[in-house]
Write a structure and sequence with these properties.
single chain, 364 residues, alpha+beta, Rossmann fold, OB fold (Dihydrolipoamide Acetyltransferase, E2P), 2 domains, six-stranded mixed β-sheet, five-stranded antiparallel β-sheet, 9 helices, elongated, disordered C terminus, binds adenosine-5'-triphosphate, ABC_SmlMolc_Importer, cell membrane, ATP-binding, iron
Length: 364
């Protein structure tokens, strides 16, 4: 029976490293899910993938696939395929034989292995390229071949370690589409490391945020942005607006006034920092209802504007596209929809953040 992948209390330290690469790290992946592992450089993302794949031996903890402990199972027998940032194809084999490689090693006759490989090349939209040398392919094409090679082993788990980070933005979007297509067709569990929040949101249904080897939060993409369990999570997810105050009866009181928090969450009473997602603040011209504010800075970010405003002595950042011809010094009105708001304990310690968000695992 498919039970998914369970990582339990993984710890791994390397000599000379400033902190353990993994510290009591636990995570569960449901069958068919796609989880992106996000975190700062050196936070332990690759070590997690390598340990799950069996390429690294943990100091403590276990990895279970569909209930089976994999401690004594060799990497090639774990039912997993790993794709790295660089495709690592065999340069002396053509495209088709790269994809057919795993089947040939298992003793599948060449003709059958190649026919099978052809169907995986089709899946990654590389049909008809089988006879080409891999060295003649572009970076994006090589990565497609690497994914086809991984999939040809029919893994239960596809481990992707920053597989698209060397590609330009358009190719990356195409690879995100490809990954959705692969998930629709084969439904493997996917665990993907990325540095990029936008990429994580584009491909994954669950995010696991890691810092210094510790899991900070595992939740849906939406919950990671709108229900961070701590200031640290909020900041790592691009949250920049933090307003000190107090919660009473589901309402946050601060210099900005009284703001009802989303009703679908048990907000604990007491001191709390109000978090306001910059992209959900509505900036309107002065004649509209809302909180009066003065623009202090405007920066362009593609089609959006990043605006810094002062409201009731509080500095806020807003990303907006609607306010016509704004300029520094203008008075505007801010609307803070309930969906833009969350709150966390003022001190980012495990105990105090638990007061505000009772469990670090936020349901999807
Ligand atoms: N083979 C190794 N030997 C020594 N230290 C290591 C080894 N592999 C990882 N580390 C250390 O473990 C920590 C976690 O590294 P890891 O590569 O897992 O982080 P990461 O989040 O994937 O980083 P990045 O995003 O920069 O790739 C770092 O401090 C790193 O220096």
């Amino acid at each position: 029976m498919r039970q998914g992948l369970v990582v339990q209390g993984l710890s791994k330290s390397f000599k000379g490293a400033p902190h353990p690469a993994l510290e009591e790290f636990s995570l569960s992946l449901a069958p068919g899910s796609c989880t992106a592992v996000l975190g700062p450089s050196g936070s332990g993302k690759s070590t997690l993938l390598r340990t799950v794949a069996g390429l690294e031996i943990p100091d403590r903890g276990s990895v279970l696939l569909d209930g089976q402990d994999l401690a004594t199972v060799r990497p090639e027998r774990r039912g997993m395929a790993m794709v790295f940032q660089r495709p690592l194809l065999f340069p002396h084999l053509n495209v088709l034989d790269n994809v057919a490689f795993a089947a040939r090693i298992r003793g599948v006759p060449r003709r059958r292995a190649r026919a099978d490989a052809e169907s995986f090349l089709e899946l990654v939209q590389m049909q008809g390229t089988g006879r080409r040398a891999v060295t003649g392919l572009s970076g994006g094409q090589q990565q497609r071949v690497a994914i086809a090679r991984g999939l040809a082993a029919r893994p239960a788990v596809l481990l992707l370690d920053e597989p698209f980070s060397a590609l330009d933005p358009e190719l990356r979007s195409a690879m995100h589409e490809l990954l959705s297509h692969v998930r629709e067709q084969l439904n493997p569990m996917v665990l993907m490391v990325t540095h990029d929040r936008d990429e994580a949101s584009a491909v994954a249904d669950q995010l696991a945020l890691i810092s210094e080897g510790t899991l900070l939060q595992h939740s849906s993409v939406e919950a990671m942005y709108t229900r961070p369990v701590s200031l640290q999570v909020s900041r790592l997810m691009g949250g920049t607006n933090e307003v000190p105050g107090t919660i009473r009866g589901g309402v946050h009181y601060s210099a900005l006034g009284a703001h009802a928090l989303p009703a679908d969450h048990p907000w604990a009473e007491g001191p709390a920092t109000l978090l306001i997602r910059p992209e959900r603040i509505i900036v309107l011209e002065d004649h509209n209802p809302g909180l009066p504010a003065v623009i202090t800075r405007i920066r362009a970010r593609g089609p959006r504007r990043l605006m810094t405003v002062e409201a009731a002595g509080v500095t806020l950042n807003a990303e907006e596209t609607t306010c016509p011809h704004p300029a520094p010094g203008d008075t505007v009105r801010l609307q803070l929809p309930t969906s833009a708001l969350a709150a966390v304990a003022p001190q980012p310690t495990a105990e105090t953040s638990a007061l505000i968000s009772p469990t670090p695992k936020v349901p999807a």
